Amino acid sequence: MDDFIIEAMNLQKEYGDFVAVDGLDLQIKRGEVFGFLGPNGAGKTTSINMMVGLLRPTSGQITINGKDVHEIDKETIGICPQDLVFWENLTCRENLKLMGDMYKVPGDILKSRIDALLEKLFLTDKANVVASKLSGGMKRRLNLALAVIHGPEIVVLDEPSEGLDPQSRRVLWNYIRSLRDEEGKTVILTTHLMDEADRLSDRVAIIDHGKLLRLETPENLKKEVGEGDVVEMKLSDPKKNEDVIKTLKELEDIISVVELDGRINLRALDAVSKLPRVMENVEAVGARIEDLALRQNTLEDVFIELTGSGLRE
């Protein structure tokens, strides 16, 4: 069987003069967590909606398991939207049973599946609680359970961690990994959270302004812009950022220097050894460092290197 479960060829989506998705080509492997990374408005959700048949492209083609996306069985895909979708006046168990019945899941299979999902998503104690009474994190976990109750082959998660506390996020991440590792499902994850994409994705597509900029593993993406360290500094007077960036760019063996959210990000191999020279140059233009941090390369750095701007802008 083909290694690729979804193939998108030259996908284009236009709204009048606005091009939301611009010539997108990509292939998603069977049984991988595939991350769509980009800022809000980059075209992530539009791309996904076309790839699962919810939105017709202006042009281009999508196939799932070799078939046109509009010819596949509806049970093939489970979608967990960013907005919460459930029956507020039903309990968790009733929500899951109703959704399972809608998909015509056999009764004995449905009961065991509901119990398993409630347990895996830490909702067992809330099984008989009305959905409207759940906390925000529990509602989001119920939202996910409803998306997979019918046992889909492909699970689409649109910004699943939006607004979650760290504990709920950890539960969610562990469950996403289990979908791949224990159930062999293909998971498509759209996110603008760097950490989420880095920790969960087997491969990441970085998209901006409707165009695919890179498609690689997180590890290779981080190597792509150099394995250097990143020095983040905040000046006491941000008006001097431009002067400092200009002088730092003249130093030898500096990979890049950019401004992001009022801070200066400098990338260099063995950055620690270069710190004395960096600080001398900063002082030479009459600036003073208020805060300084050294860290390793991240996916956000990759995006900044590719686009010159931050992911959260």
UniProtKB/TrEMBL annotation:
<keyword id="KW-0067">ATP-binding</keyword>
<dbReference type="InterPro" id="IPR003439">
    <property type="entry name" value="ABC_transporter-like_ATP-bd"/>
</dbReference>
<keyword id="KW-0813">Transport</keyword>
<dbReference type="GO" id="GO:0016020">
    <property type="term" value="C:membrane"/>
</dbReference>
<dbReference type="InterPro" id="IPR027417">
    <property type="entry name" value="P-loop_NTPase"/>
</dbReference>
<keyword id="KW-0812">Transmembrane</keyword>
<dbReference type="InterPro" id="IPR017871">
    <property type="entry name" value="ABC_transporter-like_CS"/>
</dbReference>
<keyword id="KW-0472">Membrane</keyword>
<keyword id="KW-1133">Transmembrane helix</keyword>
<feature type="domain" description="ABC transporter">
    <location>
        <begin position="6"/>
        <end position="234"/>
    </location>
</feature>
<keyword id="KW-0547">Nucleotide-binding</keyword>
<dbReference type="GO" id="GO:0016887">
    <property type="term" value="F:ATP hydrolysis activity"/>
</dbReference>
<dbReference type="InterPro" id="IPR003593">
    <property type="entry name" value="AAA+_ATPase"/>
</dbReference>
<dbReference type="Pfam" id="PF00005">
    <property type="entry name" value="ABC_tran"/>
</dbReference>
<keyword id="KW-0378">Hydrolase</keyword>
<protein>
    <submittedName>
        <fullName>Sulfate-transporting ATPase</fullName>
        <ecNumber>3.6.3.25</ecNumber>
    </submittedName>
</protein>
<dbReference type="GO" id="GO:0005524">
    <property type="term" value="F:ATP binding"/>
</dbReference>
